[in-house]
Write a structure and sequence with these properties.
homodimer; alpha+beta; four-stranded mixed beta sheet; globular
Chain lengths: 329, 329
């Protein structure tokens, strides 16, 4: 079914046109405007059976999710996404309609940002039993902003969150038990909704460190802690207020499954929220909520605490397998 | 063996630093300088069993080949490569040393251009029997040059070639018969050597259309012909003079196998030579050789001819399966 020449043009043609593309799909390479004279670039690979299942997610869902994982990384640098490039390896018997669904999902996730797929490659794997592999590269522009790295946090900074946490892990718990409702929970797993605009807004407000939460809050704030040489001390009450809406699916599903929703908030991955540190007394931009403080290491090691307790013991207490999100499969 | 967190840092750390990278590997995204205010970007996916075999190519070879396929696309726009991003999906039992070999090959192919790997993602597939999938995105800069598209060829232009053709197909024919010599033939399959500098040089000299020869000369000049609405008429004598060194491996191997070396020159893929059209009376830049002429379509359809004969009948005559390179597997 899959022919490298015919299908790729058809799949990409429906991906829309990036506002910033001077040359779009169909030539040897795309040409994308980079007004800042710097381009922000990131790649993520999604593998069937690890990052998505075709029986749990529609092709559109998978396209949305693949785009979101990369677009959030651009936002986490303070950038605005301009274009995606997509490489797909799939079994030779993959249906064109399925690939078109993925392309539609990619395009739909990009469109509100003015971005689009500007290039790609579609290859049939050697075996009909091969897993689908989707590799997405996102490009973005900083528009004069400094890039916000993981290494800039300083003692005294406020730790803040934009976007939600735990939704994807909660949805996964539902799907794993064979349920497909509540829909809000399952939808959060199928289509994460990263707070893209919050990234550039944080950079404008003077955020000193930022990253996206793809592997879980404890794991990803751990990157900031280690790269900055500080302790990130998260506040459980603030986190609960920010993430656990009493009417929301996390509380409902956790009650039904006898689970601790805080475990999803602290260790669940793939929601692509943003976490950043801001200098003290900075007014947090819209969409950002304080969830903790940056402390000097003193005689301790850089790392993550929750109300003064180490991430390791917190993870043990909430019953999660590790501080890092473990993919299914 | 493969852990997403540990190995990726180790593999990428050896990839060197791009001269143009303001932020390299290890953060949410890289930041690459784009002095032209435009970035050239392309993605190619290589799948084990289709584009490489681990018993035929070392991991370093595979890294070189994956980088070359993408770097040649940047050159074919008239650009100079600045950075690569690499996504790898591999079986969970993949050895770290093998991945490091691939990274070393990627780095070594980039280094002469001042480019390097600035980011990537390494994911273990769900199954030990999964094929390795390597997805490479190359970024480049035009330094004020116009991008050279496939659509700019005009009747009267000279068609010219930079780099060699048929070498990869010849090497593949050798490997398929179970031989590993002559080494020059096999090396051309394992590590193509695209003429990177010839791309920007062609753009500077006023090339009107250009593409890289990844699918075979007839197939890729066919892209120029169709996108430009012209006939590309290739000259067999000029091609033989440019590509068939009497002392070279193509002639030797073809004699030994009873094959027609012109079949490899016309339809062999993966050498990543560059083909371009130049206005008449332009002095071809260094490394470029005339191999044909662009003709008006008149009452014919846009397409490729060899000395006035259609590509389709030429392909039939040389015994190749199709005008487009068919990957093994």
């Amino acid at each position: 079914v899959v022919g490298e020449f015919g299908v790729i043009a058809r799949v990409l043609a429906q991906a829309g046109t990036a506002q910033s593309a001077e040359v779009g799909p169909g030539d040897d390479a795309a040409v994308v405007r980079a007004p800042d004279k710097r381009v922000v670039a990131t790649t993520d690979v999604l593998v069937e059976g690890r990052h998505f299942r075709r029986d749990w997610s529609s092709p559109e869902d998978i396209g949305h999710k693949a785009a979101a994982a990369n677009l959030a990384d651009i936002a986490a640098m303070g950038g605005v996404a301009s274009a995606l490039l997509v490489g797909v390896a799939c079994p030779p018997d993959t249906q064109t309609a399925w690939l078109e669904g993925v392309a539609a999902g990619l395009a739909a996730e990009c469109a509100p940002l003015g971005a689009a797929v500007v290039g790609g490659d579609l290859v049939a794997a050697a075996s009909d039993s091969a897993a689908v592999v989707i590799s997405v590269t996102a490009l973005g522009d900083l528009y004069g902003r400094p890039a916000v790295l993981r290494s800039g946090a300083r003692a005294g900074d406020v730790v803040a969150l934009a976007g939600r946490l735990g939704g994807s892990a909660c949805g996964l718990a539902v799907l794993r038990r064979g349920f497909s409702s509540p829909l809000a929970a399952v939808a959060a797993h199928r289509r994460p909704t990263p707070p893209y605009a919050a990234g550039p807004a944080a950079a404008d407000a003077g955020a000193r460190a930022m990253c996206d939460v793809s592997d879980g809050l404890l794991a990803d704030t751990g990157h900031i802690a280690r790269d900055s040489g500080v302790i990130i001390d998260l506040d459980r009450v603030a986190l609960a207020a920010a993430c656990l809406d009493p009417e929301g699916p996390l509380q409902q599903v956790a009650s039904a499954l006898g689970a601790d929703p805080m475990s999803w908030v602290l260790t669940g991955g793939e929601d692509h929220a943003l976490v950043a540190t801001f200098p003290p007394r900075v007014a947090l931009p819209e969409g950002w909520t304080a969830i903790g403080a940056v402390r000097a290491v003193g005689r301790k090691k850089p790392g993550v605490w929750v109300n003064g307790e180490s991430a390791e013991s917190v993870v043990k207490a909430v019953g999660a397998e590790s501080a890092g999100h473990v993919h299914f499969g």
